[in-house]
Write a structure and sequence with these properties.
InterPro entries: ABC3_permease_C (IPR003838), MacB_PCD (IPR025857), Macrolide_Exporter_MacB (IPR050250)
Subcellular location: Cell membrane
Protein name: ABC transport system permease protein
Strand content: 15-25%
Low-confidence stretches: 400-405
Membrane topology: Multi-pass membrane protein
Helix content: 55-70%
Structural class: alpha+beta
Number of strands: 24
Family: Belongs to the ABC-4 integral membrane protein family.
Length: 859
């Protein structure tokens, strides 16, 4: 009880000093809990959506996916004859059944040819209005479509694009272009996670999306009273045989949920990873806080020992303070986490993914995890300072001394730091020398961990040299104030090292990712310059296939010397070594593709791969399956016949563009795949006649004005698009790393604030002998800047080493250009000085307001 009272008294006596540590715990716990609440809420939203939109039993064509996906390589949804509907109705236990037609391989535009598809990546669905949809949609304006010229739109899409009754829209599918006017607007009765939905009448949907009457993509079946979904599925399957896919509502919902599960898990674990980094940074803050509080209470601890307190009691007293800090920070963090989740939901709403706060899901495990993490991390971080407090002897009460210095511990720390750093450096060397990326990545991960820990351990040893260099370059111009700031930073190397290490971690990751991202862009640009021989690339950024009418528009464009179509499909390979490879990609292109992509070959000529019944494979595939020029490979096409193709070329696997592709001509593919099953083009390449590049570029953009889903890019545009994509990804990562950097800044603030308290008497004496308030504040700001720049130098140096090693591994995959983004590195370094300046504002202000006489009188 005495220990608890002492801990409580000390905790509340230093509540101001504990506040920033509590904020660090709060932020870390809040990010973890916010991530868990947000992802749980998204799962709840999708669970409700899929459960509400699934009929008791769904019958679909054999080629449809388990989740009911209605796209295929040829741009048309897999269908079944309308006669299936009659058979389903005849099955036992069927109350009602209705045939529907849906497709997600469509683009919808308004009268100005602006794309109405969601920018969030959610699907655009065009289908027939049916009673199953009527359960989850309510017509709020107009009426359902009743003829070929009418369409109904969901209310969210109508609001976003300012659509109203009577407006004309266009539907672009593989069949052709279709125009209709809005006859009605329907509102979701459940949460819409961002899809854009358009409804046609059944006949129009059949002709527009499939191109033939009397077919359906799905049959929605409702069970009669007392019949379970499982029984109904069994009865319907018995009636239809094994020709079609039959699923219960739960099976359909589970398959849909599985489709989004991968994305959700990537997002969840990525965000939790960044929260873990913030926790790691917070550990340094907590260690520094308790170390300084223990040092400032040396006399108090010594007196406690003198009157009979044992080492364990002193140790326990500090740990109880940490426990209180962890509990307070974690409880506040759990509450803040719910707020973060709501904020993320609002942000997703602006991106087009609508999440309702009524679906907010806070599982009991979320606060439990938050509290456990926050408390455990705080107590563990405080263990070393607590152990150090327990070593204070009773004699310390008689003199102004802290915990006894342990020279042996310093040597052990130095030796351990050097060993860890050396081992990490060796691991990075092995990774950079690896012959396979998979092997090297393990060494890279080990090297990153070891060098990070090594730099943290050895940091105090580096303080002396690096701070003196920074002082000579930056501080000496400020005269005596600059020299005092330098000495203050050198006064406690362990404290300066820990504070700088907190900032080092975040900046090391920033530097590493910047080097990797910049090298990827530079390598891809280099590959484009060396291998791409076409002037223009036409494709959809959302991955949509190029419709035949868009391809025709490209081919009809004046000023072009050639147009190359590019398709991909799947086949079962039987290779010369007797192995069968299921669902393996194969690329079919026009013979001109050999000029559009100057792919290096290790045997044969790529042009010969476009001869009848011929193909090429890449080098790694050839070695793995004993393939040589002239070898025969049997391909059983997914939607066609079986072909025996001769290998006419073996391409290098040491490429970035189209790495791993196996080529044949479109004519060869057409020989074995029926015309109505031929895949659409994934890309189209076009080259201008000599001297007509600018004119052809403008003409192509004009020709595809009616198809806004496709982008026309020359090589400069393509490089910029690649740079923008990687830049967006890096910016998102930098935003998440900002949490760790904020916690590190709090650490600098806390260190300076406690340091000011620790030096109260010293500050009073300096003020008494003539140091002005302005000079005092400048001294503290310069000290903060030096600490921040020390951490920045460590972090940027370490991160560039990681990034350069990672690039060596990427070089094994063809990304051979190492590019150091010096503008980014310099900007981060300069920004670190501003971070230090901002962190010092409050401590410097408080130091400047000290009463001189009171400060001198402080013991």
């Amino acid at each position: 009880m005495t220990v608890l009272k002492t801990s409580m008294r000390n905790f509340f006596a230093h509540k101001g000093r504990m506040a920033l540590s509590a904020v660090a715990v709060l932020l870390s716990v809040a990010f973890v809990c916010g991530t868990l609440v947000f992802t749980d809420t998204m799962n709840t939203t999708f669970d409700k959506l899929f459960a509400a939109t699934s009929s008791d039993v769904t019958v679909s064509a054999k080629g449809a996916s388990d989740s009911g996906e209605t796209t295929s390589d040829n741009g048309k949804p897999p269908v079944m004859p309308a006669s299936v509907l009659g058979k389903v109705k005849a099955a036992d236990g069927v109350k009602s059944a209705e045939g529907t037609v849906f497709s997600t391989s469509v683009t919808v535009v308004d009268a100005d040819k602006d794309n109405l598809s969601p920018s969030s990546g959610a699907p655009t669905i065009v289908g027939s209005w049916n009673s199953n949809d009527a359960r989850t949609m309510k017509i709020t304006e107009g009426a359902a479509p009743k003829g070929s010229g009418q369409v109904m739109v969901d209310a969210d899409t109508a609001d976003k694009h300012h659509l109203k009754l009577g407006d004309e829209i266009g539907v672009i599918s593989a069949i052709g272009n279709f125009k209709a006017r809005i006859s009605g607007i329907a509102d979701f009765q459940i949460t819409n996670p961002g899809a854009a939905i358009f409804y046609l009448d059944t006949k129009t949907a059949q002709s527009t999306l499939v191109g033939e009457p009397n077919v359906y993509t799905n049959v929605n079946v409702t069970a009669a009273s007392g019949v379970t979904d499982a029984q109904l599925k069994q009865n319907v399957a018995a009636e239809l045989g094994a020709t079609f896919k039959v699923q219960t509502a739960k099976e359909t919902a589970d398959a849909n949920q599985k489709d989004v599960e991968g994305f959700m898990n990537v997002m969840k674990y990525a965000m939790l990873g960044f929260a873990g980094i913030a926790f790691l940074v917070g550990i340094f803050l907590i260690i520094n806080t308790f170390s300084m509080l223990v040092a400032q209470r040396t006399r108090e601890i010594g007196l406690m020992r003198a009157i009979g307190s044992s080492r364990k009691q002193v140790n326990r007293s500090v740990l109880v303070e940490a426990l209180l800090l962890g509990v307070v920070g974690s409880v506040l963090g759990v509450g803040a986490g719910v707020g973060i989740a709501v904020g993320l939901m609002k942000l997703m709403g602006k991106l087009g993914i609508h999440l309702s706060t009524s679906d907010l899901t806070v599982a009991w495990t979320t606060p439990a995890i938050g509290l456990l993490l926050g408390v455990v991390v705080t107590v563990l971080a405080a263990y070393l300072p607590a152990r150090r407090a327990g070593k204070v002897s009773p004699m310390a009460a008689l003199r102004d001394a802290g915990a006894p210095a342990d020279a042996r511990a310093g040597w052990i720390r130095a030796l351990l730091g050097l060993v860890l750093t050396g081992a990490g450096g060796y691991s990075l060397y092995v990774a950079a020398s690896a012959n396979k990326a998979s092997e090297g990545s393990l060494w890279l991960g080990l090297g990153v961990v070891l060098t990070l820990i090594g730099f943290v351990v050895i940091g105090p040893l580096l303080v002396g040299g690096m701070v003196r260099v920074l002082g000579a370059v930056l501080l000496r111009i400020f005269g005596p104030v600059g020299r005092m700031a330098e000495r203050n930073a050198l006064r406690n190397p362990r404290r300066t090292g820990a504070t700088g290490a907190a900032l080092m971690i975040g900046l090391a990751l920033v530097a590493c990712l910047s080097v990797v991202g910049s090298s990827m862009v530079a390598s891809a640009s280099d590959q484009l310059d060396k291998t791409v021989g076409t002037d223009f690339i036409i494709q959809s950024d959302s991955g949509q296939l190029v419709t035949p009418q868009a391809v025709k528009a490209v081919k009809d464009t004046p000023g072009l010397s050639r147009v190359t179509e590019y398709k991909t499909t799947e086949a079962d390979y039987t290779t010369p070594d007797g192995k069968t490879l299921k669902d393996t990609d194969v690329t079919a292109a026009d013979p001109t593709y050999a000029a559009d992509l100057r792919t290096k070959t290790v045997a044969g000529n790529l042009k010969d791969a476009y001869l009848p019944d011929s193909m090429s494979v890449h080098e790694k595939f050839a070695k793995a399956h004993d393939i040589h020029l002239g070898s025969k490979i049997k391909l059983a096409f997914k939607d066609g016949a079986t072909a025996n193709l001769t290998v006419r070329a073996i391409t290098s696997s040491d490429v970035v563009i189209d790495a791993g592709s196996k080529y044949m001509s479109i004519a060869t593919l057409a020989k074995y795949v029926p015309a109505d099953k031929m895949p659409l083009d994934g890309l189209v390449f076009a080259s201008a006649k000599d001297g007509q590049q600018d004119t052809a570029y403008k003409s192509l953009k004009s020709a595809l004005h009616d198809y806004p889903q496709y982008k026309v890019r020359d090589q400069t545009d393509y490089k910029q698009a690649l740079k923008d994509q990687i830049g967006q990804l890096l910016n998102m990562i930098y935003g998440l790393l900002a949490l760790a950097i904020i916690v590190a800044v709090l650490g600098v603030v806390n260190t300076l604030a406690l340091s000011v308290v620790e030096r109260t008497r010293e500050i009073g004496l300096m003020r008494a002998i003539g140091l002005s308030r302005r000079q005092l504040r400048r001294m503290i700001r310069l000290e903060s800047i030096v600490i921040a720049l020390f951490g920045a130098l460590l972090g940027l140096g370490l991160g560039m080493g990681w990034g350069a090693t990672a690039q060596k591994l990427l070089a094994l995959e063809g990304l051979k250009v190492l590019d150091i983004p010096w503008p980014t590195i310099i900007a981060v370094f300069v920004g670190s000085a501003f971070v230090g300046l901002i962190a010092a504002l409050i401590p410097a202000f408080r130091a400047g307001r000290m009463n001189v006489l009171n400060a001198i009188a402080t013991e």
